[in-house]
Design brief:
Porin, mainly beta, twelve-stranded antiparallel β-barrel, 1 helix, single chain
C-alpha cells in the first residue's frame, strides 16, 4: 500500500506541474503543443491520421496500424475514434491478421470495444478514465496524464492498472525533439505487480499542407516489462 501511494504521489506531482496554461501574450487563445506518441496531447483539434505501433515481446511481433479521426463537438469537447488492423507473428503457430479493438475517446474517458479477436490479443472491453494537462516552461513543452484502466471483459478480464505519462519537448522551427517517460503499475488481475517504467525518445516533424509526422522508440527501464521494444509512428493532417 505504501508503494502504491508513493507512485500515486509521483504521478500527481507530475500532473500538477502540467496544469493547463494560457498563452503568454495575455489573450485567451489556447497555446499550441507538440504531439507525443504515448502521452495524450492537450487541446481541441480536427484531424485525421495514421497510427503505427510495432512491438517486440520475446519472440513475438505485434504490429498495429490504425486510422484515427478526431473531431471537436464543442469548443471544450472533442471525440476521437481509432480503428486498428492488427498483425500478429508468434514464435509458434501461424501469423494472423485482422481487425483490432475499436477505441473511442471523449469526456476524459477511453472506451475499448471488442471488435477484434482474442487470437490477435484483442476482443476486450475496457474503460480508462484519464486526466491531463500541459504548460509552457520557457522554451519547453511539458505534458502529463494520469489514468486508471479496468478491463471488464475479454482474454484479460479483471486486470486493472494505473498509468502516468510525462512528455517533455523542445519546439524548434519545423521539428520538435521530445522524450516521454511512462509508469505502469498493475493494480489487480496480474501475477506480477511490480511497476514498469519506459522511456521514449522521439521527434515530431512539421510538414507542408498541415501535416505532421511523429516517430519514436519506447524502451523499458526496469526488469518488470511487457515488451523489449516498441516502435511508434503517427502521421496527422489537421483540416
Amino acid at each position: 500500500m505504501r508503494v502504491r501511494v508513493s507512485w500515486l504521489a509521483v504521478g500527481v506531482l507530475l500532473l500538477a506541474l502540467a496544469l493547463p496554461a494560457r498563452a503568454q501574450d495575455g489573450n485567451d487563445a489556447e497555446p499550441s503543443f507538440f504531439d507525443p506518441l504515448v502521452t495524450l496531447p492537450p487541446g481541441i483539434s480536427r484531424e485525421v491520421g495514421l497510427v503505427f505501433d510495432h512491438t517486440r515481446a520475446g519472440h513475438e511481433r505485434f504490429t498495429l496500424t490504425s486510422l484515427k479521426l478526431q473531431y471537436p463537438v464543442f469548443s471544450w469537447l472533442q471525440v476521437s475514434v481509432e480503428m486498428p488492423v492488427v498483425a500478429l507473428d508468434p514464435d509458434r503457430g501461424e501469423a494472423a491478421t485482422g481487425a483490432g479493438d475499436l477505441l473511442v475517446v471523449g469526456l476524459g474517458v477511453e472506451l475499448t470495444l471488442p471488435t477484434g479477436s482474442a487470437k490477435l490479443l484483442a476482443g476486450s472491453t475496457a474503460v480508462r478514465p484519464f486526466v491531463g494537462g500541459a504548460i509552457k516552461l520557457g522554451p519547453l513543452d511539458l505534458i502529463a496524464n494520469l489514468s486508471h484502466q479496468w478491463v471488464a471483459a475479454g482474454p484479460v478480464s479483471g486486470v486493472q492498472q494505473f498509468q502516468a505519462n510525462t512528455a517533455l519537448g523542445y519546439p524548434l522551427d519545423r521539428v520538435t525533439p521530445f522524450v516521454e517517460l511512462s509508469l505502469i503499475k498493475p493494480v489487480r488481475g496480474t501475477d506480477d505487480g511490480r511497476p514498469q517504467v519506459y522511456v521514449l525518445p522521439g521527434l515530431e516533424l512539421f510538414l507542408p499542407w498541415s501535416l505532421s509526422l511523429s516517430v519514436g522508440v519506447q524502451l523499458p527501464l526496469t526488469s518488470a516489462r511487457s515488451f523489449e521494444q516498441r516502435i511508434l509512428g503517427s502521421l496527422k493532417w489537421q483540416f
